[in-house]
Amino acid sequence: MPRANYTPQEKQLKSVIAGNLNELLSKTAYKKADVVRQTGISESTVYDYFNGKVLPSPKNVEKLADFFRVSKEEIDPRFATLPENVIPVDQSHLVKIPLIGHIACGEPITADQNVEGYITEYFPESVDPDSIFALKCEGDSMEPYILDGDIAYIRQQPDVEDGEIAAVLVDGDTRATLKRVKRVGDQVILSPDNPRFNPIVLDKDHPGKIIGKMIKMSRFQ
Fold it and tell me: Which candidate in 59, 126, 141, 216 is catalytic?
């Protein structure tokens, strides 16, 4: 039965493999039934591969490559040989991160109703995936460091050091704001990097809640 939780990268890979299989088949006189008979792969699984519904196992990629008499990488890009000057990415450092929209009051930050989607991101050091979430930045208050549309990766923690960028909920708002934190007496100052914007002052009359520290930022052009 096909998985229901493929990442965007896996969905793209399924489509690529399906395209490769259909192109290879079109260059022969064979039909899918011949693929089933000669590879020993079940009919439903073969059709799922050709329709881009599931990713083939390494063993089945080898069977399909033998059937079409091609290399495995001509079917599945995961088998491509890297050039000598390319260092492969350690897959253990690729982490699936929930992208958070509005944050429901009283619910865990990564509760299903808060999640708009998922992003797979590389972290050079080991991180706890259950403690990380992503926010899509809106506006230009943190320019030039953070631009509109950037993705900020936040580690859940209740406090940060002065000068660090935190995700903060202000006055009961359900959408987090990213600002640099500074403490002055009983007040917490949330400072923008863009001098055109005024800081936000948190105190007993205007409360706020730090929900995490920004540990990484990605920019997609």
Answer: 141
